[in-house]
Amino acid sequence: MGPQHPSTHGVLRVKLKLDGERVIGSECIIGYLHRGVEKIAENRTYQQFAPYVDRMDYVAAVSSGLGYCEAVEKLLVVEAPPRARVIRTILTELQRIASHLLWLGTHALDIGALTPLFYCFREREEILKIFEKYCGARLTTHAFRIGGLQYEAYDTFEKEVERFCKDFESRIVEYEDLLTQNRIWIGRTKGVGILTAADAIAFGVTGPVLRASGVKWDIRKAAPYAAYDQYKFEIPVGTTGDTYDRYLVRMEEMRQSRLICLQAIENIPAGPILAKVGKVLKPPPGEVYHAIEAPKGEIGYYIVSDGTVMPYRVHIRPPSFINLQAFDRMVRGHLVADVVAIIGTIDIVLGEVDR
Amino acid sequence: MADEPNEPKPPQVPTGDKPASTTAPVSTPPATPASGPAAPPKAAAPAPPKPPVVLQTPLNNEFVTRFRAKFGAALLEATEDRKQAILTVDRARLVELALHLRDEEKFDMLADLTAVDWPKREKRFDVVLNLYSFPKNERLRLKVHTADAEAVPSVVSVWPTANWQEREVFDMFGIIFSGHPDLKRILLPDEWQGYPLRKDYDILQQDTAWVRENLGIESGQ
């Protein structure tokens, strides 16, 4: 299967071993989009490398950027000011909604439901417009800086976020009307690609895929970063760990993200947006591992500093790469037609798998 | 630990450096009246802040004591860097220690496995495992040192997620994992020459080689 397939937004090749229509084994061939991001990092300064992380998971660039900035801040032993942290939280949650919308639209499209895509992209567009107004870019945003933010929130920022959140409540209902009780949707997703909690942990799976298997774990709660400790939200979990559960978990996560945004815009503290980090960043020698909850799971940065302006080593733990490894376990015993549903349900971005 | 953290440098606080030098002469001119105009910022900056913040400290908590009592010499070093726990352990006993950490200490997830190259050191590679425990909500970093020709025991049998991650480390560093079910390149093509994330792998190397080979000229890079 492959090397090109619309559900992957990139290039993934899957070798399938079949018994008639039934899959009895699989192997993923990846690396088509490998750009050597980690090697590039060793030849750039800390600030110069920041835009590169946006090119990994390019549909959730804000989240990748947040993880990187916070990791370097930890290495420097500085903290972003409260105002920056709250604005970061709002933008990151909007990004989570946008990423989930893109997933929902394309995943439904793969399974044969054409309509949701148009609805999802309509709302995603509103989020991208907010990003564009904030930092000038829609996709690879480079929205944050090490130590905080470069740009102040624009004048109508809160109002626009609020309007989006208000509208979005009824929009989720629209998507659910189309899919949640839809017989074809249920037939194609229920019982497909089951991943048990024990398997999910053994394969290091994180994010919505892990939660759909019944593990109530979210880094936003387990080790709060940015401003997440100030807001109330729930962690949705599934019971069976099938494709339908993963769908329900992501739908609920969008609702929760919306609630976080609404709480956050109510009270954005005043004050500076950038900590005093200086123009030349030379983190003291040492190392740090920092992980955040990206839309697809745990994105971790392991950075080693030798005290110079360039990182000695940057390693990225990409959620897509690790989650894709569980594909083989999920696909065995299913029909060829289900393979597409299972690729879609893991929600991978090949830019991040291959780096 | 030959050439990594030499000792935190005295101008510890990179944050204060720039702003301090601009404000210091204004706010505290009488403090150092005798020295030249260039000297005060340098002298003033490191003096008032307390002795450099120590970021790396030896780790000695209950867990380490327990671990040392059980495995003794297999634990080479226990440190803490920016409040993150790091254990350096004996390479040969990695699988046994990993099983213990997973089953007894409940580090049930291997979040990340990677390597770092320190070419000047006798054993040039660090293989780094970042573990996470769901029941304890704690992270732990496990390190083993290895040389070019020495294989590291594979932990795929302990955490299946290590499969692709060890393949990636093999792909990028050329480190062999003994006992790995299918050790081959993962991101790069099978016929790729060299291991890109080694420090002696120059970033322009394959570009110049490609130009020479395919165009028959010297690269302009």
Which two chains have the most extensive interface, and how many residues on each? A-B, 53 and 48 residues
Output the helix-strand order of chain B: HHEHEEHEEEEHEH
Largest sheet of chain B: 6 strands, mixed
- N-to-C order of helices and strands of chain A: EEEEHHHHHEEHHHHHHEEEHHHH
By secondary-structure content and strand pairing, the structural class of chain B works out as: alpha/beta
- CATH architectural type of chain A: Orthogonal Bundle
Descriptive labels:
heterodimer, A: 355 residues, alpha+beta, Cytochrome-c3 Hydrogenase, chain B, 3-stranded antiparallel beta sheet, two-stranded antiparallel ribbon, 9 strands, 13% strand, B: 221 residues, alpha/beta, Beta Polymerase, domain 2, 2 domains, 6-stranded mixed beta sheet, two-stranded parallel sheet, 6 helices, 8 strands, 21% strand, elongated, disordered N terminus
Task: Describe the protein's topology.
The complex is a heterodimer of chains A (355) and B (221).
Chain A: E1 4-5, E2 10-11, E3 13-19, E4 22-29, H1 37-41, H2 46-53, H3 61-76, H4 82-111, H5 115-135, E5 144-145, E6 148-149, H6 157-179, H7 183-189, H8 197-202, H9 208-212, H10 219-222, H11 243-266, E7 286-294, E8 297-305, E9 313-317, H12 319-324, H13 327-331, H14 336-346, H15 350-354
Antiparallel strand pairs in A: 1-2, 3-4, 5-6, 7-8, 8-9
Helix pairs in contact in A: 2-3, 3-4, 4-5, 4-11, 4-14, 5-6, 6-11
Chain B: H1 14-27, H2 39-44, E1 56-58, H3 62-71, E2 75-81, E3 84-89, H4 94-103, E4 109-117, E5 125-133, E6 138-146, E7 152-153, H5 162-173, E8 177-178, H6 205-215
Parallel strand pairs in B: 3-6, 7-8
Antiparallel strand pairs in B: 1-2, 2-3, 4-5, 5-6
Description:
Chain A is an alpha+beta fold and 355 residues long. Chain A is 50% helix and 13% strand. Chain A contains 15 helices and 9 strands. In chain A, strand 5 (144-145) and strand 6 form a beta hairpin. In chain A, helix 5 (115-135) runs antiparallel to helix 6 (157-179). The model of chain A has no long low-confidence stretch (mean pLDDT 88). In chain B, strand 7 (152-153), helix 5 (162-173) and strand 8 form a beta-alpha-beta unit. Chain B has a 6-stranded mixed sheet with strand order 1-2-3-6-5-4. In chain B, strands 7-8 form a two-stranded parallel sheet. Chain B starts with 13 loop residues before the first helix and ends in a 6-residue tail after the last helix. Helices cover 29% and strands 21% of the residues of chain B. The interface between A and B is large, with 53 and 48 residues.
